[in-house]
Structure formats: structure tokens, C-alpha cells
Amino acid sequence: MNNYLSNFLSKLSKKVTINAQQEDEANEENEANNKEDEANEEEDQPKIENVQQEAEEDLVDPIDILREKCKETNKKCKNLVEKLESCTKRVTSRTNTTETCVEEMADLVHAVDMCVSKDLFKKLK
Questions:
Q1: What subcellular locations does the record give (predicted)?
Q2: What average pLDDT does the chain have?
């Protein structure tokens, strides 16, 4: 019985050793593959960023152009821009004030949006 048990244990230890070696080899292979994948990802990252930057540089939102045009050419918008600027100067010149220029800003934004809405959808594709 003692002989049988020692024989069994020696076979079992050989299998455990072989399995451990196979696992080590598999782990090393996986680590090597992961390092290669990381290197490839790092190489691809700048390419993707460059493409995104180029695409962002080429895109210009037509509403921004129309807003600036309205502020410069529309009589009502020009007057509201002047009112906002004078309010801003008045508020920033004072040290202790509760006045804000929210109303002037809201009026300007509304007027610019009304002006832009006339031409915006002609520009969109």
C-alpha cells in the first residue's frame, strides 16, 4: 500500500509540474502579446488624434459666422451690443454693486438669434 501511495504521489507531482510549466509558458505568451498590443495602440493613438484635429480644424459652424455678421450689420443688434458694453463698463467700474447685465445680454442673444434664424437653414446641408 505504501508503494502504491508513493507511486501515485510521484505521478501526481509530475502532472502538477507539467501543468505549472504550461501555465507559465501561456502567461509569458499572453504578456508578450499584451505588450505588442499596447505598443500598437500607442502607435495608432497619434494617428487618430491627428485625424480628429484635422477634422476639427476644417469644420466651421455656420451659426457662429452668422452671429458675428448679425452683430456687425443688423441695426438692432448693434444697438444692443453697445448697451451691453456700456453696462459691462459701468458694472466693472464699481467695486460694490448688485447690478448685473443679464437683461442686456438676454436681449442681445434674443435679437441675434432672431436675425440668424432668417439665414441659418439656408446654410445647413
A1: Mitochondrion inner membrane
A2: 78
